[in-house]
Amino acid sequence: QVRLMESGGGSVQTGGSLRLSCTIFGYARITFSGAWFRQSPGKEREGVAYIDNYGGSVYADSVKGRFTISADNYKKILYLQMNSLKPEDTAMYYCAYDLRGGLQLRGDYSYWGQGTQVTVSS
Q1: For every residue of the chain, which 3-state class applies, written as one string?
Q2: Whether the predicted pLDDT of 28 surpasses 80
Q3: Order of strands, edge to edge, in the sheet holding 18-25?
Q4: Distance in angstroms (rounded) separating the CA atoms of residues 65 and 41
Q5: Mean per-residue pLDDT for 15-28?
Q6: Cβ atoms within 10 A of the Cβ of 122, count?
Q7: Rounded Cα gap, residues 67 and 58, in angstroms
Q8: CA–CA separation, 111 vs 109, rounded Å?
Q9: % of the chain beyond a pLDDT of 70
Q10: How far apart are the first and last CA of the chain?
Q11: By mean pLDDT, which of 19-23, 29-33, 54-58, 89-93 is the weakest?
Q12: Rounded to 5 degrees, what angle do the CA atoms 38, 40, 41 make?
């Protein structure tokens, strides 16, 4: 069984930075898909960033150039570095993980964290 736990959310002002972490507990394999999604009240869940075991990444257009996803495969931690934050980045951020590769920003991940809140004030 795989369990995910996010941390690092909080409140910042416009232009600020936060780094989210997602620790993966349980079985993990070399091939994987890891991603961050977000959802704000009244809106659909949005895929933000994806990384695979080769280090390949995909970003939503809304965060390109501002967010960076990375993975520490040894420690089994996913990171999301968020810079130049905007009020529209305010949302609950969820870590997602799957033992299948290549899922990118599709929503059909097998494992999800509980979420960590990010609030950006103007």
Answers
A1: CCEEEEECCEEEECCCCEEEEEEEECCCCCCCEEEEEEECCCCCCEEEEEEECCCCEEECCCCCCCEEEEEECCCCEEEEEECCCCHHHCEEEEEEEECCCCCCCCCCCCEECCCEEEEEEC
A2: no
A3: 3-7, 18-25, 77-82, 67-72
A4: 25
A5: 92
A6: 7
A7: 11
A8: 6
A9: 98
A10: 41
A11: 29-33
A12: 150
Per-residue tokens: 10: 């909080």
**Residue 96 tokens, joined:** 């997602």
The structure tokens listed for 35 are 């991603």
Give whole-number Cα distances, 98 to 15, 18, 45, 73, 104, in Å. Answer: 32, 24, 18, 14, 10
What is the token pair recorded at 109? 């991940």
Please state, in angstroms and rounded to a whole number, the distance separating the CA atoms of residues 10 and 92: 10
